[in-house]
Design goal:
There is one protein chain. This protein is of the alpha+beta class. The protein is 51% helix and 10% strand. It contains 18 helices and eleven strands. The strands form three sheets. It has a six-stranded mixed sheet. The termini are far apart. This is Cytochrome P450.
C-alpha cells in the first residue's frame, strides 16, 4: 500500500475481510487514516504482527501517542478512551505487571475451572429462555441478544460483584465505547456515565465487601495507597467489563454464523469428528471477534517488514487480517475448517494477543464459548439463520467484528418446528 494512498478506516465498520485481503496483497503493514484524519498504521500480516506485539521499542502508554501529546486529539474522539483509560491496556513494564497481577487473581486457571458449574447452569437457563422466546416468535429468536450476550455479561459481572440492576446499562455503555462511528458528545457522555456507574459499584463494595474482584481491588488499594490509584481502579473495572463480555459475545455470535454457513463442519462436530474447542479456535482465527485493536506506539522510528513506522504513530493490531494471512495459515486460509488444528496445518492464531499483553481472560472466554456452542447445538442441532447472512447488520466499529443481531430459527420440542 503506497503511503500516498493510505487506507481510510471506515468508522461504520462493516465486514473487514475484503479490505484486509486487498491490503495484505500489498504488504504486511499498511498506512491508514483514523477518524478525524489522524494518520496511523495497521499491522496485518501474522508474522509481522507477532514481532510487533513483542518489540522492545513498542509501548502502550498514551504518553507515546504523538498526536495526543501535541493536542490534536479532541476529547470526543471515538478512540480516545482506548488510548487514555488507566489500566492494563495502556500500561507498560512494571506498571503493567502490577495491574495485571491484581486483576489476574480473579482469572487464575483454578478460579476459571471453579466457574464451570456456574457457566453451565447459566447456559442451561439461557437456552430455556431462548426456546421460550422462540415459541412466542414463530420459532425465531435473536440469539445474540438472548444467549450470546447474557452469558459472558452475567459471568464477568458476577466476578466483579456488579449487581444485576447495572448489567443492561454496562452493556449499552460498553457498546458505545467500542463504537468507532460515535459522535463527540455521545462519546463523552458514555465515558461519564460509565465512570459514574462503576463508581457506584465501587461505593457499594466499599460499604459491603464481598468475595469478588472489585472488593479485592479496593482492599489492595486501601492497604497500600500508592499501589492502585482511584483512576486505575475505575479503569481496570471498565476494561474488564468491556473486554470480559464484548469479545466473547462476538466470538459466540461469529461461531454460530460460521457453523450455520458451513453445515458440513457442523455435522462433523456433531458426529464427533472434531471438538467444540476446535470450533472456538477456528472461529478465533477465521473471524476474529476483534478486528483492529488500538493502540501501540513505536518509541523510536521503526521499520517493520520493509515499512517505516515513525515514533509516536498510533498502530492498530490487525487480528482479523492476520487470521487469514495465507503466508501463515496456508493457501486455504479463507476457508472455515474445524479440523485445521488437528491436522497441524497453518499456524496458531493471534486473535487473543501475544506477548505481555496476551488476553488475561482467554481461559474464561474459551470456557464460556465452548460450553455455549456445545449445549446450543446439542439441544438445537437444526438451528439455522432466520435471515440471509448478507442481511445481518454489522456492529458500527472497525475495532469489534461481528453483527448487531442474530435472528435464528429453532426446531422446537413439542411440535413447534422451524418453517
Amino acid at each position: 500500500m503506497n503511503a500516498d494512498r493510505p487506507h481510510r478506516m471506515d468508522p461504520a465498520g462493516g465486514c473487514p475481510h475484503a479490505a484486509n485481503a486487498r491490503l495484505l496483497a500489498e504488504g504486511a503493514v499498511a498506512p491508514v487514516v483514523l477518524p478525524g484524519g489522524i494518520p496511523g498504521m495497521a499491522v496485518l500480516g501474522h508474522e509481522a504482527l507477532k514481532r510487533f506485539l513483542t518489540h522492545p521499542h513498542v509501548a502502550k502508554g498514551a504518553e507515546h501517542f504523538a498526536a495526543l501529546r501535541d493536542g490534536l486529539i479532541p476529547d470526543g474522539w471515538p478512540l480516545r478512551t482506548f488510548a487514555t483509560v488507566q489500566g492494563m491496556t495502556t500500561a507498560d513494564g512494571a506498571g503493567h505487571r502490577r495491574l495485571r497481577s491484581l486483576a489476574g487473581q480473579a482469572l487464575t486457571a483454578g478460579r476459571v475451572a471453579e466457574l464451570r458449574p456456574r457457566v453451565e447452569a447459566l447456559t442451561a437457563r439461557l437456552l430455556d429462555d431462548l426456546e421460550e422466546t422462540a415459541r412466542t416468535g414463530d420459532g425465531v429468536a435473536d440469539l445474540r441478544r438472548h444467549f450470546a450476550l447474557p452469558l459472558p455479561l452475567g459471568t464477568i459481572c458476577e466476578l466483579l460483584g456488579v449487581p444485576a440492576e447495572h448489567h443492561d446499562r454496562l452493556h449499552r455503555l460498553s457498546s458505545r465505547l467500542v463504537s468507532t462511528d460515535i459522535g463527540p458528545e455521545e462519546a463523552m457522555a458514555a465515558d461519564r456515565e460509565m465512570a459514574e456507574t462503576l463508581g457506584a459499584v465501587v461505593a457499594a463494595r466499599r460499604a459491603g465487601p464481598g468475595d469478588d474482584l472489585t472488593s479485592a481491588l479496593i482492599a489492595a488499594r486501601e492497604a497500600d495507597g500508592d499501589r492502585l490509584g482511584e483512576a486505575e481502579l475505575i479503569g481496570t473495572l471498565l476494561l474488564m467489563v468491556v473486554a470480559g463480555h464484548e469479545t466473547t459475545l462476538n466470538l459466540i455470535t461469529n461461531a454460530v454464523r460460521a457453523l450455520c454457513g458451513h453445515r458440513d463442519q457442523l455435522r462433523l462436530v456433531l458426529g464427533g469428528g472434531a471438538g467444540w474447542g476446535d470450533v472456538v479456535e477456528e472461529t478465533l482465527r477465521w473471524d476474529s471477534p476483534v478486528s483492529h485493536f488500538p493502540f501501540r506506539y513505536p518509541t523510536r522510528d521503526l521499520t517493520l517488514d520493509g515499512t517505516p513506522i515513525p515514533a509516536g504513530t498510533p498502530v492498530l493490531a490487525g487480528y482479523s487480517a492476520a487470521g487469514r494471512d495465507r503466508a501463515a495459515h496456508g493457501p486455504d486460509a479463507e476457508r472455515f475448517d474445524v479440523t485445521r488444528a488437528a491436522r497441524g496445518t497453518g499456524t496458531r492464531h493471534l486473535s487473543l494477543g501475544h506477548g505481555p499483553h496476551y488476553c488475561l481472560g482467554a481461559p474464561l472466554a474459551r470456557l464460556e464459548a465452548t460450553i455455549a456452542l456445545e449445549r446450543l447445538f446439542t439441544r438445537f442441532p437444526d438451528l439455522d439463520l432466520a435471515v440471509p447472512e448478507e442481511r445481518l447488520p454489522r456492529v458500527p466499529s472497525f475495532v469489534g467484528n461481528s453483527v448487531r443481531t442474530l435472528p435464528v430459527r429453532l426446531r422446537l420440542r413439542g411440535g413447534g418446528a422451524a418453517r
